[in-house]
Design goal:
Layout lengths: L9 H22 L5 H33 L13 H11 L12 E8 L6 E9 L4 E6 L5 E6 L1
Antiparallel strand pairs: 1-2, 2-3, 3-4
Helix pairs in contact: 2-3
Length: 150
């Protein structure tokens, strides 16, 4: 009479290992690559930072325009739309702008001058991200255009 043996067969073990290897391969492929979760997360972070800069510009610009229309503020004290005013209002509305720990991320505000040196034709806000640069332009009346990619 044959004694019954308990245990796992070699074929069952090999099949289990193959299934685990396939699952591991699929998991690694989903994490890495152009459409992987990690790549998408990095892209989402960049988009979030760009939107944060744009929102800060809009809030700062709205504050400047509200002060310009405020009848209680004398005309001599009303703000003008220039690089220093935009920078001040952006920083007040979002303290993180331009202070990100990543050295590749930088926000600059500069004046575009035309004709005479004191004639400011627009203010340019540039967000230099990790992958792209975004540029917004604000005319002297406060109209915001952009962002454009460079």
């Amino acid at each position: 009479m044959m004694k019954k043996q308990n245990g796992i067969t070699l074929i069952a073990l090999v099949i289990t290992i193959i299934v685990l290897l396939i699952l591991a391969g699929v998991s690694i492929a989903m994490l890495t690559g152009d459409n992987g979760i990690l790549t998408k997360a990095k892209g989402a972070n960049e988009t979030t930072l760009q939107a944060e800069v744009e929102e800060s510009i809009k809030l700062g610009l709205a504050e400047i325009l509200a002060d310009k229309l405020d009848p209680t503020i004398p005309d001599t004290d009303k703000p003008v739309i220039d690089a220093s005013t935009i920078t001040t209002k952006m920083t007040r509305n979002n303290a993180n702008i331009g202070t990100n720990n990543d050295a590749k991320i930088k926000v600059t505000v500069e004046e575009i001058k035309g004709g005479t040196p004191e004639a400011v034709t627009a203010v340019k806000v540039t967000y230099a991200g990790k992958d792209k640069n975004y540029i917004w332009t604000i005319n002297p009346e406060g109209k915001l255009t952009g962002p454009t990619n460079s």
